[in-house]
């Protein structure tokens, strides 16, 4: 049986969903993060980038392509926004001094993107992708 790009993309998508669920479970546990969580997070980002690249090259309906790209891009943006949060905070502290943020202040834009917006977009994209995959499977069974 020959494996095509669509099957690879779908396998990567399901792996991303499973890793996301495992990472959410690990974060909810609130224990110390071990090497397994770090490896899962790294795999999550790599698979997200691969998902976007494969989806961009596939010829398929625009709505399906949109949902898969939103899923992959939002997953890849989570660590990027976390890094940018720390980078902007550190640079502003260095350039403008330690009292620049005031008491208890912090750079919040990239932090909110990393912990709220990007995971929400991932869930939205994943749900839309699942709905489209299931509807395509049902249409294929009917014909």
Give the key terms.
82% helix; 4 helices; 143 residues; mainly alpha
Account of the 3D structure:
The protein has four helices and no strands. The chain is elongated and about 65 Å long. The model has no long low-confidence stretch (mean pLDDT 87). It has one domain (5-142). Helix content is 82%, strand content 0%. Helix 2 packs across helix 3 and helix 3 runs antiparallel to helix 4 (109-142).
In short:
The protein is mainly α and 143 residues long.
Number of strands: 0
Low-confidence stretches: none
Rg estimate, integer Å:
18 Å
What share of the residues lie within helices?
Answer: over 70%
The biggest beta sheet reads: none
Shape: elongated
End-to-end gap: 21 Å
Into which percentage range does the β-strand content fall? under 5%
Order of helices and strands: HHHH
Number of domains: 1
Put simply, the count of helices is: 4
The overall average pLDDT, rounded, is 87
